[in-house]
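Thread amino acids onto this structure.
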């Protein structure tokens, strides 16, 4: 119809966004693609509830800034997502709309308004980490008379010493571990960045015993389930939680604490920091994109601040009220 509203379906651009932009141009990791996929599935499901229009029939005019903002509010109020998760979802949406801007100049204003939606600010909590006695209690918690217990102990000790992310632990294969001279473990982190983390003597000794018992082929998971499959994120989280409960029986400071796998990564970073390792080295060790990501551990370490306080010369000023020596200053002081 001449002069009628422009209608452009979302579906072709959405498909090209995954097959062309993410897979070919950016060569995004499977995890990134999964996060973007889940975000857009949630968004299209929300829009369907609001408009009763099937995703294949949606056009760009429906996905305006008002609809996107309503979806973000829905994530927080109805799905009880954290602000951090809400911002991750917004990042995925903005990536799609940035791609759409190149293909649909006719919707430039609508797209620009969506891209202008800012991420939400949130309070950053001090990172949670385990002390040396708490780490020892946790590593000693798995039952060594059971196969799963021996696997879990090796996994926990490796996680605490290397600071690997859960996804990196899951992805490890038997061939990723090198023992002997230059002992290390190789992993692929965020952004397909590969790194090698050195292994201490105790970790190397335990992994040597575990690899012998594991008897896996080079490409097999280093820490498998009973059926040989890779452990899931939820499975590792459950193991950490279960062993924390057991460890609390001998280490009271763990009582009532919710310890998740990422706390082991934080504990590794804190032990390195307290040992005097430079933050730039810690950033490389953990696979951080930059040194700023490591600043959180400096903020969390009270001992560093206490040492700084001890270096400050105590002030010798006598108590009393300041009296300006000039009439004009006295006037200003009185305001």
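Threaded sequence (335 positions):
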């Amino acid at each position: 119809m001449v002069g009628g509203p422009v209608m452009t379906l979302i579906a072709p651009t959405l498909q090209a966004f995954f097959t062309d932009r993410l897979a070919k141009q950016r060569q995004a990791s499977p995890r990134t693609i999964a996060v973007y996929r889940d975000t857009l599935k949630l968004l299209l499901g929300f829009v369907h509830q609001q408009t009763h229009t099937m995703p294949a029939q949606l056009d760009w005019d429906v996905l305006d800034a008002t609809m996107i903002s309503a979806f973000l509010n829905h994530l927080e109020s109805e799905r009880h997502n954290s602000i951090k998760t809400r911002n991750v979802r917004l990042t995925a949406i903005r990536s799609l709309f940035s791609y759409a801007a190149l293909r649909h100049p006719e919707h430039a204003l609508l797209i620009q308004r969506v891209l202008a939606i800012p991420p939400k600010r949130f309070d950053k909590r001090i990172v949670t980490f385990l002390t040396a006695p708490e780490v020892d209690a946790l590593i000693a918690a798995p039952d060594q008379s059971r196969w799963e217990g021996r696997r879990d102990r090796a996994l926990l000790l490796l996680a605490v010493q290397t600071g690997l992310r859960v996804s990196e632990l899951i992805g490890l294969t038997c061939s990723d571990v090198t023992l002997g001279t230059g002992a290390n473990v190789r992993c692929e982190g965020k952004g397909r960045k590969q790194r090698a983390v050195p292994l201490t003597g105790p970790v190397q000794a335990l992994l040597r015993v575990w690899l012998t018992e594991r008897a896996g082929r080079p490409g097999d998971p280093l820490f498998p389930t009973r059926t040989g499959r890779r452990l899931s994120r939820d499975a590792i989280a459950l193991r950490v939680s279960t062993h924390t409960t057991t460890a609390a029986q001998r280490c009271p400071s763990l009582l009532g604490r919710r310890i998740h796998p990422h706390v082991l990564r934080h504990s590794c970073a804190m032990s390195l920091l307290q040992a005097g390792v430079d933050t730039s080295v810690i950033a490389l060790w953990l696979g951080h994109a930059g040194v700023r990501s490591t600043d959180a551990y400096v903020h969390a370490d009270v001992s560093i601040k206490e040492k700084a306080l001890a270096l400050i010369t105590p002030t010798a000023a006598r108590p009393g009220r300041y009296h300006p020596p000039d009439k004009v200053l006295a006037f200003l002081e009185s305001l």
